[in-house]
Amino acid sequence: MYFYSLNRYERKKNIPLALKAFAELKKLEPKLDVKIVQAGGYDGKRVKENVDHFNELIQLGEELGISDDLVLLKNVTMSERSQLLRHS
Fold first, then answer.
1. CA 80 to CA 25: how far, in whole Å?
2. β-bridge pairing 70-74 and 2-6
3. Which letter does DSSP use for residue 75 in this model?
4. Helix, strand or coil, per DSSP, at residue 30
5. Based on the structure, what is the number of domains in the chain?
6. How many degrees, rounded to 5, is the angle at CA 76 between CA 40 and CA 44?
7. How far apart are CA 56 and CA 16, in angstroms?
8. What span, in angstroms and rounded, lies between the C-alpha atoms of 29 and 33?
């Protein structure tokens, strides 16, 4: 099972909220076979916030103990996005 968050890597999107909620779910149901996938726009060459926030999310995943269940995807195509939505 997968939970998806489709957002650009910007702080205003509050992706940490999704990660924290997911971590709470894993605490309540530790045997649940589930992953969280964050997929979004990322321009590491022009937008420093994208790079910083991406790294913050990796760190938060480690702090919350969900690193093994966290998938961070950058710049998904419309086709990939449609696939993710179909499987959510």
1. 26
2. unpaired
3. S
4. coil
5. 1
6. 60
7. 9
8. 9
Q: d(Cα 81, Cα 79) in Å, to the nearest integer? A: 5
The CATH number of residue 50's host domain is 3.40.50.2000
Q: Which amino acid, one-letter code, is at 59? A: Q
Identity of residue 23: A
Asked if 67 and 33 touch (Cβ cutoff 8 Å), the reply is no
Helix or strand run (H / E) with residue 35: strand 35-40
pTM for this predicted structure: 0.89
H/E run at residue 71: strand 70-74
Tell me what pLDDT residue 59 has: 98
Which residues form the domain of 51? 2-86
Q: Which residues of 52-80 are buried (b: 16+ CB within 10 A; e: fewer)?
A: ebbeebeebbeebebeebbebeeebeeee
Tens of pLDDT along 32-75?
999 999 999 999 889 999 999 999 999 999 999 999 999 999 99
